[in-house]
Specification:
The chain contains ten helices and nine strands. It has helices at 3-24, 32-44, 58-67, 84-88, 122-125, 129-134, 169-173, 186-196, 210-222, 227-241; strands at 47-51, 73-77, 89-94, 99-104, 111-115, 136-139, 142-145, 151-156, 175-180. A hairpin with a 4-residue loop joins strand 3 and strand 4.
């Protein structure tokens, strides 16, 4: 496939992004940086960590993104008393059959909102490691493959907030990007006020099917990157580490 054909495919699939952005713009005011990086994670099959103070539309943005895709969505509220089994699932004994039955947890959906992930202790956060890295879950010795696409969008409050736990390094490594969400501008706050006090709240419709999304990911993988750019990227990473 030559560069011209790849360019045409990219331009064609960019319509998908414009449709998603248009729908999300009905609910989320401003936050362009956040929305763009959520789409990057969606196209690159990478999980995202969204950090910001409460009330900055982190949860709303994730729910709105999920609503634009014809797929399954699950919100998991992380709290200090949450258990790993509450996320992954567990074995349930059935007296009538004398056997154990596996009850799957909320992780078995396409898009997961891990809300306030750093309000749960490390052992609960670690329950996501296998799912995020290998796209599978093991319950009682049985391994289940997760459906594709599978994307975790986790929100967290700044670590200075009361009742938060720092994410283990292994957990942080599972996220492709960390996005810091800031306050909206004064003009954006006025738009939010007008929109939320209106007679009818905006509604988002699904505009993308999973098959379209998976094909768009293939197109992203076809984009040509010259070796000089790859070498420059590797050099800057080593400089940053040093």
């Amino acid at each position: 496939m030559d560069i011209q054909e790849i360019t045409q495919n990219v331009e064609k699939e960019s319509l998908l992004l414009r449709q998603i952005m248009a729908e999300m713009g009905k609910v989320v005011v401003g936050q362009r940086n956040l929305l763009e990086r959520m789409l990057i994670g969606l196209l690159c099959d990478g999980h995202l960590l969204l950090e910001g103070l409460p009330g900055l539309a982190k949860t709303t943005a994730v729910k709105t993104l999920a609503a634009t895709i014809q797929t399954t969505f699950q919100r998991i509220q992380f709290t200090p008393d949450l258990l790993p089994a509450d996320i992954l699932g567990t074995q349930v004994y059935r007296p009538d059959t004398g056997s154990f039955e596996i009850k799957k947890g909320p992780i078995f959906h396409n898009i997961i909102l891990a809300d306030e992930i750093n309000r749960a202790p490390a052992k609960v956060q670690s329950a996501l490691l296998e799912a995020m890295q290998e796209r599978q879950v093991t319950i009682g010795g049985t391994t289940f493959q997760l459906d594709n696409p599978f994307l975790v969008l986790a929100t967290q409050n700044p670590i200075e907030q009361e009742g938060t736990y720092p994410l283990p390094e292994a957990q942080v490594d599972r996220f492709m990007l960390k996005v810091v969400v800031d306050y909206p501008s004064r003009l954006e706050e006025r738009v939010i006020m007008d929109r939320m006090t209106g007679a009818e709240l905006p509604q988002v419709r699904p505009v993308v099917e999973p098959a379209n999304l998976l094909y768009a990911r293939q197109v992203v993988g076809q984009i040509y990157v010259d070796d000089k750019i790859k070498e420059w990227s590797d050099y800057t990473m080593r400089i940053g580490d040093g």
